[in-house]
Amino acid sequence: MHKIRSTNFLGLVALVVALTVPSASIAQSTGADYSTLTSAVDWSSAITALMAVAAVIAGVLVVRKGIRFVLGALK
């Protein structure tokens, strides 16, 4: 009984793969071109802001770890 279920499941997986692979290649060949929209956006300021936020978070975590280290040494 278990073997019949696994065979049916594998057949279903094979069917789904067989049906989606051709449609994926068609969708890839006729995809929309957004290069005109994305080339007009300057990402440098957004990347700088994200890096600044990441640096602040990293700084807070380093300070927190340092405080825990010092308090642990005092105990």
Topology diagram in text:
Elements: H1 2-29, H2 35-39, H3 44-74
Helix content: over 70%
Amount of beta strand = under 5%
Number of domains: 1
Q: Which residues form runs of ≥5 with pLDDT under 50?
A: none
DSSP helical segment count? 3
Shape: flat
Rounded Rg: 27 Å
Could you describe the 3D structure shown?
This protein is mostly helical and 75 residues long. The chain has one domain. 85% of the residues lie in helices and 0% in strands. It has 3 helices and no strands. It has helices at 2-29, 35-39, 44-74. The protein is flat, with a radius of gyration of 27 Å. The model has no long low-confidence stretch (mean pLDDT 80).
Which terms summarize this structure?
75 residues; mainly alpha; flat
Kindly summarize this structure in a few lines.
It is built from three helices and no strands. The chain has 75 residues and is mostly helical.
